[in-house]
Amino acid sequence: xxxxxxxxxxxxxxxxxxxxxxxxxxxxxxxxxxxxxxxxxxxxxxxxxxxxxxxxxxxxxxxxxxxxxxxxxxxxxxxxxxxxxxxxxxxxxxxxxxxxxxxxxxxxxxxxxxxxxxxxxxxxxxxxxxxxxxxxxxxxxxxxxxxxxxxxxxxxxxxxxxxxxxxxxxxxxxxxxxxxxxxxxxxxxxxxxxxxxxxxxxxxxxxxxxxxxxxxxxxxxxxxxxxxx
Length: 229
Description:
This protein is mainly α. The chain has helices spanning 8-41, 47-59, 62-73, 80-87, 95-119, 123-131, 136-147, 149-164, 168-173, 184-192, 197-200, 202-225. α1 (8-41) packs parallel to α5 (95-119), α5 packs antiparallel against α8 and α8 (149-164) packs antiparallel against α12 (202-225).
């Protein structure tokens, strides 16, 4: 029985993974909604280029994405140098860096789901709201957003699940520091390189499956509680 009880190190990895995934999802969701709506509604020069750049994390090796983030956010990086100088903020090799890596890797999945959802919203309902005196923001909040909430929920769940499983970019920018940046995938990787690690990692694999199932179940619960009208 004790073989299935998580060790303190495993609990730390689970807690950190949840913290990183939730932070990455919550922080990136408003940007995902805005960009998904913009891409679904607007046509502009260079749109295909924007979509290509957005999709790059899906096709690039994760370590390459992590390397680029390191170049940008490192203490002497293009952005990291200014963050350090102006705000005294250092992201690299902290849990915040893991959250940034997870958000970047999951963002394309989130935006794709949200874009499709807004694309399926009946434009006639939006036009009807505008003719009744609703402004653009009111129409978005009261018409477009509720009708697209299924896709938004799906995008958030996808982003959360992808963040929970992020490895390559995270190890590049956040490292593999026990208790600091060691998420579940990094913990399993470390265990796999030690004697008997493959067998003991089964506990965290089960935990990952349970967390994913709970996330999907919560999404379904929200959908049943707020049926489409």
